[in-house]
């Protein structure tokens, strides 16, 4: 809503100040009475006048905002504090823009102008035309998934995903289902499906949350308001039978949340206890450490506030520095600085009456200009303020780093350690990298990694299944990727996501910003990063998704890359996060414009991800019945959001490591309210413990998947399936008995690894269908993920033992 030029306005400008500081009213500039000719009073409407735009205007204070209102400027109801004052938005013609600039107003760039209006109206016309065209014909529904599952207390749930060819928001899909084989359609229930869009693009329809059902449905029918309809069978999701652990299998090794020092000490002790099958790998790059410079802040109003920051870290002497602001006993005293050891005293200037006249900016300059003081500290005005306000005297105030962890937590750079488990740790076995706590506040994840390590080592001698994993794999467990942030989250600010490295300039360096510093480690990698234009990370140093000043700027992320580069036998990885109950894989990032997604895994690999997910998630479910929803399983960009510069993409695209992401902490269904309840980053330990146990199950299952891969010498089998024929064409696809890629030719040539490869029909859909317009002899072969080739065919050789079949068109025989 925009204001009327005739209406009096007052826009409140609020500047958030730290701790107990209160912002007094900013100084008010005298506002001259406007002259009738200053602003044209009868300007045509913004939609009629060429060149009118919504413009940014930055003014120094509230008085200038009031002056704009008094001048009759068409102000939008928007205001925010910025460096240099207050930003407001105004609807201005080119003439009004020039007039305001002539009067000294800082009128900046346009937020939107008539070209945006034209684009919006054109887009609207296109949408209306598209909707009209869609309404004229029946839409086609493509079923993606229809599954039932049980969770926790055994309650049944239904999950359905369907894509319509009519992508407009007016198209409504309704699902109905039966009560089991032989029951009437619709007897089980009916529900309207939600339209799922991402980055402005239609994806598919689904239930926002799985629906509770009393009976297990056999079929579900989805109908569209456009007339389309499809009926599909409902299959079971998860619940793969798993062999119960042996009688002597031990588990449940964590009984409290642990800080990074504890979990690192835990894996170090394990390596000492089990030296024959484990060792510690020290990662080469030490972190910045759980440490910060010490600070103190003086003042109660923005203009008279300044802060000081020690040159040394707090634990290395910064906490011993103090600053006092003294009032001289004489009038007309000059501003001066004195240093005694680490005690800094600023003697404030006074006027002839003895009143203090030193401004914040002058005190800052004096401190920074004194060689003894500047050796101890630096000073800055509050968040870039000019600092024209007069400061007040203040007693000696000690600087502090405000860090509250006990002395058991070192303030020095942290040595990150990986626990390497395996009977043969020489690179000859398939490697698996399990890593946790990239995000500091996710307290369940490090104890999940610890639990997995304990199970592997303590069950080796007594459990045959565990022994097979340890004997045949090379397992790397990093329980805390973010030790500095993890300590800060546990002892200082529990919602800390990032590490503790501060890249902010002085304008964002005051003590109240201390919870806003650091780099999001899972946005600091090199593939699909914010620096490449991908969505889901920020270049702002105070953002929770700050991608850092450059790719791999952080020692923590460089350690991950070093590990996967050094141990090239690593073929699988699992990045464990919380919360929400997701199971995901690459691609993990896209560019918002056009939703340009990183290259998807090929069809065979995608099927491998899905196939493995059933095994892994069934293991999670086996602990207490938790089912990860089908709708929260899949590529990151399909089921969550874009995460520019994440680690799974780094390892997959740069090294071919098949990597997953766990988000532990699935929503818990409350049958009383019939609602799902989120568990959060740090649930009560009783819940956190259960999450650690069930997802340690999942990590063990990933090792089982890796061992199966390592032992896979079975060749895949494939077949061609004709799916439709007409008088002039035929359509076919391929199926395989295991996840595998199919390479084919249609011109009678010998297929190779350079031949066309069977692709997916679309996101979360099955295999593409290939159409030919004449009778064609198709040649093909398949290759599974482990590299086994169907019939032992040599794609780079001269053999002809590939598959062959003729697809008939029309009456050809």
From TrEMBL:
<protein>
    <recommendedName>
        <fullName>Peptidase M14 domain-containing protein</fullName>
    </recommendedName>
</protein>
<feature type="domain" description="Peptidase M14">
    <location>
        <begin position="378"/>
        <end position="706"/>
    </location>
</feature>
<comment type="similarity">
    <text>Belongs to the peptidase M14 family.</text>
</comment>
<keyword id="KW-0732">Signal</keyword>
<dbReference type="InterPro" id="IPR000834">
    <property type="entry name" value="Peptidase_M14"/>
</dbReference>
<keyword id="KW-0862">Zinc</keyword>
<dbReference type="Pfam" id="PF00246">
    <property type="entry name" value="Peptidase_M14"/>
</dbReference>
<keyword id="KW-0645">Protease</keyword>
<feature type="signal peptide">
    <location>
        <begin position="1"/>
        <end position="30"/>
    </location>
</feature>
<feature type="region of interest" description="Disordered">
    <location>
        <begin position="792"/>
        <end position="813"/>
    </location>
</feature>
<dbReference type="InterPro" id="IPR059177">
    <property type="entry name" value="GH29D-like_dom"/>
</dbReference>
<keyword id="KW-0482">Metalloprotease</keyword>
<dbReference type="Pfam" id="PF13290">
    <property type="entry name" value="CHB_HEX_C_1"/>
</dbReference>
<keyword id="KW-0378">Hydrolase</keyword>
<feature type="compositionally biased region" description="Basic and acidic residues">
    <location>
        <begin position="801"/>
        <end position="813"/>
    </location>
</feature>
